[in-house]
Sequence to fold (518 residues):
Amino acid sequence: MHRIKQPLVIGYILAGIIAGPQFFNWLQSSHELEIFAEAGIVFLLFIVGIHLNPTVIKEVGKIALITGLGQILFTSAIGMAIAIALGFATGQALYIAIALTFSSTIIIMKLISDKRELDKLYAKIAIGFLLVQDLAAAVILILVPILSSAQGDQIVNSLSQLGLQAVALGIGVYAMARWVLPRFFQLAAESSELLFFSAVTWGIGVASLFSYVNLSLEVGALVAGIALSTSAYAEEISSRMKPLRDFFLVVFFLLLGSQLVLNDIQAILLPAFILSLFVLVGNPIIVYILMQLFGYSRKVSFQSGFTVAQISEFSLIVIAMGVALDQVSVQTASLVTLVGIITIALSTYAILYSDWLFEKLDPLLKRLPSRGESAELKLRNKKKFNVLWFGFNPIRDEIANFFPDKQTHVTVVDYNPKHIELVEQLGLSAVYGDASDVEFLSALPWHEVHAVISMIPDPAVNSLVLQQIQAAGGTKYTFFTAQNTTIADQLYELGAHHVALPFHMSAKHVIRLVKNLW
Fold:
């Protein structure tokens, strides 16, 4: 897959199919492989939790909750109707509908991480509604065995006990995160090895504790990561754990491919095609419509929609549970497994090439009704746009020293919530948005802008900004940065007033310093 420039995830799944019972049947130690696969899930969700700090949850919490619950409701209802129309009994149709509802956090986070877009708005929203899905899936995984085996008062007692355990664990993890972990990791950070092993111990420990009390292992890993999200060592821990995550996730994908058992391929091929089409097309449409109703831009809605275009590992677990309880047939389990492999394979391409797909489909999307102004275009305070500054990260708080009198109204554009919070602490205006999104740029009030400064090193983004400035009639002054003279010339041709070459400037300064030594 690497040599033919295809996603490695596809290679892992294909390798699992080849090594599975359909071909060579090499993967036979299923218990050991499942432990490795679970470790991959724990490390992945632990890292995802580390990036889910309270600022992100506050920023996208509302739309994530609404989109997540809305998608679950509409997908399950439509999915059940399709399953019944295909001839499945009501009970099995319900299991199929539940399986179609959940999207794979593992697949989505792996692909978005590979694209280096975890900080983009659509990725944060996707993480939010995936969290909602995971919580709903965890509740279903807990409820199904209880409802199948218990009766009457036993159900109430089991649920009450589980609820009390969840509350107790939540309080315990919060107390540790608030008063114990900061001091502990400060001491552990004196040794990089000790910091790494301490983080692994914390992540696996909390996840195992959640699993021990019959709560979800996945939710436990996520909670363990969130507990460290505000730590000063969060990024260091995340970067050190990624190789470990990648290694164990390979086993997860191999195991997923090996689980494909097709005893009667002809009987399930057509239903698998129809259900896969619904997941690949129907789910993104549902999310797109929901986000458009709340005023999000076409691109953010489009990219968020494609993150739900596959079924989840939870789906396979739910179906396997149904088989164990004798409520789902083996043929239905094979059908859902086939849908999973088809949707995971095709959605991988959709997510990786979502920018290209949006560019091709945007003329069609423009014809659909829209709420107009982007919801992500949200000012933190109502000041005029005298100076529009793109990209906060390279300049940090030095921006405050450039405009100390506050008479010049500076508005910073950035898609990182941490940067937005820092800007607000400096008393400046901020806009949360992605400068690579043409629709977002077009929604900015260019008629109020006198000067544009971009510290973003991406020449494609700077070209888009300049094109938008020219389309709006121009501004008094524009400043950009470029990595080389070729890019600088291109920006000048697009109308830039001044382009700085920081690498050239740094090199000249270093040469002057070295010459002064003699």
